[in-house]
């Protein structure tokens, strides 16, 4: 039976969630009357299709928002005006509700409350590191060893790594997919056409709505427009995809061409992995730098620990991977390998329950908008 403390915590969370969705509805009604920001991003033309805003509408618009800040800096009703319109902050608070409500398994949605995600990141990283250090000591009897010509499998057997990381990655994909499907069922947007799917993919891959609606970018710490966050997001995303491509090519080499690792520095898996690692170094470092300098009215201050924790974990993953590549022929290879594998495992285990979830729900929201904008706008309050 749940404790009184747990019941109280759930009641407070429910009340906070209702207040956050009500605040989004209030601000959207003001914005509907103004519509100055209608061309900034997809949120505002989607808003004009509604006179009232349900919980599902609030979740949809919150995930359609890219938190670029342009509307806040342009708004005549922003604080200290009595209307206190701050769309990026209101949307950020509702986005966290989305992650908590649709998380699978449902009890893990509680991680999004009380900085649970930050604690989970730290616990997963520490636990993974302890595991691999124990395996290293069991395999070599020491944290250091004679050079092994970069042969990782001389320390951790290939089948052990494949099983461990395959299960962790499959769990992350399954949890994110179930969460996205639950979100999608609650939206009921209608049939998805090839054109709408292609449009949503284009906007997601190009980060279209981080250009501020005019191509000059968004606002970070002041009223100056900048494309920096869009560019650092691209470094992060495409760096991740290059690392994934490296893993896929290495799998092909291993199983199809019977060429197990280690691979030469000039081989395709290493070149892809190196390029991806550099992207994952530049991107998260830049995003963290912007996050530390960003205007305090942007986003939800309660989520900063979660956001920064994820950026630091991405940085640690790329940095340890590049160090491992540079020093793989030394006595420290086993220790560096253990540290790198620990950060990767922690990343996989926490993907569905941290900042990464925003990419999945934002993609779903972009797809709904691509579907919705092809349907008649019965209110005729704005143009698409």
TrEMBL record:
User: Which of UniProt's keywords are assigned here?
Assistant: Membrane, Transmembrane, Transmembrane helix
Q: Which sequence ranges are marked TM in the entry?
A: 117-139, 159-178, 235-256, 268-290, 310-327, 333-353
- Check the record and name the InterPro entries matching this protein: Citrate_utilization_prot_B, NarG-like_sf
Q: Does the keyword Transmembrane apply?
A: yes
Q: Which NCBIfam families match?
A: CitB, PRK15033.1
Query: What name goes with this protein?
Result: Tricarballylate utilization protein B
Upper classification of the source organism reads: Bacteria, Pseudomonadati, Pseudomonadota, Betaproteobacteria, Burkholderiales
